[in-house]
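Suppose a classmate hands you a notebook page containing two proteins, each written out with its sequence and a corresponding row of structure tokens. How would you begin to make sense of it? This section walks through that situation. The first entry is reproduced here exactly as it would appear on such a page.
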Amino acid sequence: MRKSIIIGLYIFLYASSFGAMGEENQGLNASVWGYDTGWLILKNTESIDVHLNDEVQDGCWTDLSGVRNVVELQLIRSGYETQRGEDGSIFVPDVVIGAVGYEIPGLGSCAVAVKLEASVPDFSEYTVGDGVLSSLHSKSVITYSAVLTARKANANSMIKGQFESMVQQLLVDMERVKQRMRGALEEQEQGSGTRYWIEQLK
């Protein structure tokens, strides 16, 4: 089910961007306002690329592998395969684990700003006259952030716990947004396209 939904979304975005959507497919189209369909691409992907962005100084974050492992473990338990940037494909959604911080002078404590960002592939186009410039790029779906302070000896465990909480929230939000989109469709007039997408979002 995941693979069929994400392929369908890619085909829809690509075909719409280049004006190639045939009349025979229009009957399965539907619209929902106020929601980003990037959430569905993220939720229904089979693989997620996990990246680290370490800008923490003074030894305030040394357990990078532990944080990566705890984030990947949550994703794997939810049925996703994980990559570590080796593929480099823009068609693979990303989760970026990032932190910026330093030791507070004279206090033996650390201040660290942490961020977990999830992105998906997206199509866009720009028209001037009869010309159309199309682009495939990465689009941010959600960012979770927090500013943490702790004794330097406790900084690693604090950061790891925060990222674990963030990826758990991401997984909850993916399901929550899908359910809300389905609910919005159920409130519409039940045409064939609406019924199709309600069924896909079960």
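The notebook's second entry, a different protein, reads as follows.
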Amino acid sequence: MRKKVSIVMAVCLAVLLAASLYHGTESRANSLEIRQTQNITTQGLYDYDLTFDNLVNKYSSHIATASVEELAKGKNTFKVRVQEPLLGTFEKDNILVYVDEHLLEIGETYVFFLRKFDDKAYPEDFFVQNSDFIVKLDDDKLLLLKDPLSKEYDKPFIQDKYNNFSEMKKYIDSIKDKNEHLSQKSHKLLVQPEDNQQLMSLADHIIEITPDSLVEDNGYVKSVLFKLEERFKGADFKNKKMILVLPTDQVDIGKKHLVFLEEVDGGGLDIVSRKGSVISETSENYHELRTIVANTFDKEN
């Protein structure tokens, strides 16, 4: 996801730059220089500079013009309606976008530079907007948010030619074939298991817990400390202080839950599916599923 630009690549770019200048053509490396803003929040998070080419080809998995409809229930989350996709495919027009609340205005249209975020603990996929490059669209004119506090806007690019949407769109079209996300294999997360057998077979760990302490709730997921009641499959979490991130609408503090977990890269744990992996004792199928699990696996203390 993050790659360092090698010395060899830097040399190659210098050679290409020299060649383009020699032939009297405009250098793509310097053609879109971004103006500085007072909202630099992501510098240092990535091992590449905030240039427009990097914004398009390294950060963004999706780019689109879209209108901001309203705040969603989660903190710093907006409901947005896609108007014109410029990069990537959107499965639906209405999407969720995560960005600091003070950066966007309800009812306005922006050019969004987004990175898709899919996590089974969340009820649906959402997109994270790059907060250092907030560009409002006013007819064909582009306006960069320069100061979030005063809501001061400026032209986003030093080269005035590109400070309109049609020219910026042409530029994006000319470089997006180098987008790193397009070359990555897409993975489809499991929304709901076909049956109990698939749910149990996919789970690396099956446990019964009682969430007894809420660490955080952002409106979509709850981070909870829990008491281990039973372990049916996988590692023993007893006497370990652990936090699980679970769907907010599927967790009842103080109630027993069956939880089906899988191991992910980096040693973390995730629920097996977006739906059906966290079952509260208040659910109709809790006791039946618990019996099936108990009969399938030897209960270990």
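A careful reader of the second entry would note: DSSP finds five helices and 14 strands in the chain.
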